[in-house]
Amino acid sequence: MSTNSFIIDGKTPINGEWVGADSGVTFPVYNPANGEVLGQVPDQREAETNRAIDAAAAAFEEWQWSPVKTRHDILRKWFSLMTEHAEELARLITLENGKPLADARGEQTYSASFIEWFAAEAMRAYGDHIPATIDGVRNVTIKQPIGVVGIITPWNFPSAMITRKVAAALAAGCTCVIKAPSETPFSALALAKLAEEAGVPKGVINVITTGSSSTVGKILATHPIIKKISFTGSTGVGKVLASQCSSTLKKMSLELGGNAPFIVFDDADIDAAVAGAVICKFRSSGQTCVCANRLFVQSKVYDEFAKKLTEAVSKFKVGNGLEQGITHGPLVNAKAAAKVDEHVQDALAKGAKTLIGGKRGEGAFYEPTVLINIADDAVVMKEETFGPLAPIIKFETEEEVIKKANDTEFGLAGYFFSRDIGRVWRMAEALQVGMVGANTGLISQTSCPFGGVKESGWGKEGSKYGLDDYMVLKYVCMGGINSRR
Ligand code: SIN
Fold first, then answer.
1. Is the pTM higher than 0.90?
2. Measured by CB atoms within 10 angstroms of the end CB, which terminus of the chain is less buried, N or C?
3. Which of 93, 153, 290 is the pocket-test mutation for ligand 1 (most atoms within 8 Å of CB)?
């Protein structure tokens, strides 16, 4: 039995009280590495969600007017507490998500860094002075918090996807209701516990756990008190939420699915490209929105790249992420492993060849896989696999690969490797994505804007732009001001 003091059984914070579900019903949370039940969380529904929204609305009355220095200090304290408890929080991420401890430690640092970042950004929500074009007035803009925010996050980054939103919301002066992912709710509850200890007032952060995400999601998306929804997850669910949000014209931030191209030109440093593919394709066993989904390799270096990537993958150690030396853990559940297998079997049926992997393991495990000879109509060319499958596609020209890379409704991230500076600029400009990795497979940084174009979403998270997504810009025109006495 795994122990972790942050496994908070059967209760979530609503209006500063840790409460269960009105029905008394709970549901289990599993360790995907071995199926062990880690604990239970409440199955909260409509009544609890409405109470959480009311609590956030009441808390907003005070929090929105709190001095930015107060918000900064509380967020800094929260960051310090996360740092103090870093190892246990990282272990919690591994327990409920399955990612290896080294990756979980990375996520924990990444997660805390959003709180540190937005603590500072709270102090920089500047407005403008705008020169008057008519007599007797002065113009300024001020930024104000948008109001109560509904936050819906995924299981692939149980901690960081929450802080990237909540820290920005709190820094802006907003309060929130978080619907925690049902697969990985304990990291959300741990964050809330530490926020409380750091002095975040009651009702500012409320957390709902539920067996019916669609019920709670719909309440958040349609409730008139909620002024903004921030969602990370699939494009399908994002579209449902967007249509629900239209009833009250809520502002939305949507960080949705991707189908990232990863392109290797024949002038690339092939070893660097292989290292980039390992991190970009196989980080978190391929379960990140910015993971490479289609690997395009120019014909001259195709065989060399495929061979070297296969060698690199053969060195992976797959297993329980808490064990020493494990580089890759299970997927989040058996359903996720089944989806990877569907993509593999479809590609094989259409003529692909397996260089390594290609089989399901026990439960939620899937072997890291490299396939070549991918048909244009293979499912993996269109759909995000969200698992450890690297399909390698041969191409001849820059023009051809740009066309293929952009032939998707998604536009989150894109990567390429080339040592030709002209090509680097051309590719960076040609890829229809929100984020580009040129000669790197790892782009995520707290200080840089995270977000996509096309059906990969709206808005930017993190960075100096992330705070604006939680604020409204107000223009104030002051009249009756004579220029001369
Ligand atoms: C995501 O998968 O949505 C986030 C990945 C990241 O921040 O690197």
1. yes
2. C
3. 290
Residue-wise pLDDT for 33-54, tens only, equals 999 999 999 999 999 999 999 9
pLDDT in tens, 275-320: 999 999 999 999 999 999 999 999 999 999 999 999 999 999 999 9
Number of the ligand 1 atom closest to the C-alpha atom of 156: 2
| pLDDT score of 459 | 97
CA–CA separation, 117 and 239 (whole Å): 30
Residues 6+ apart with CB under 8 A from 282: 313, 316, 328, 368, 388, 390
Q: What angle do CA 408, 409, 415 make, to 5 degrees?
A: 55
Main-chain dihedrals φ then ψ at residue 465, nearest 5 degrees = -85, -20
Of 98, 384, 337, 336, which Cα lies nearest the Cα of 238? 384
Q: What would the pLDDT profile of 354-393 be if each residue is shown by its tens digit?
A: 999 999 999 999 999 999 999 999 999 999 999 999 999 9
3-state DSSP assignment of residue 413:
strand
Whether residue 157 has its Cβ less than 6 Å from ligand 1: yes
| CA 164 to ligand 1 center in whole angstroms | 10
- Is residue 146 lining ligand 1, measured as CB closer than 6 Å? no
**Amino acid identity at 414:** G
- Report whether residue 12 contacts ligand 1, using a CB cutoff of 6 Å: no
Q: Which residue has the tokens 């008394």?
A: 24
DSSP letters of 367-385? --EEEES--TT-HHHHS--
CA distances from 148 to 166, 247, 447 (A): 11, 17, 25
Give pLDDT tens digits for 433-478: 999 999 999 999 999 999 999 999 999 999 999 999 999 999 999 9
- Give the SS3 label for residue 327: coil
- Residue 207's CB is within 10 A of a number of other CB atoms, namely 28
Phi and psi, residue 33, nearest 5°: -75, -30
Active-site positions read 255
Backbone angles phi, psi at 475, to 5 degrees: -100, 125
Contacts of 105 (CB under 8 A, 6+ apart): 86, 87, 90
Ligand 1 in reach of 288 Cβ (< 6 A): yes
b/e 310-329 (16+ beta carbons within 10 angstroms → b): bebbeebebbbbbeeebbbb
Nearest CA to ligand 1 atom 5: 288
Does residue 289 have its Cβ closer than 6 Å to ligand 1? yes
| Nearby residues of 478 by Cβ (< 8 Å), 6 or more positions away | 137, 138, 139, 140
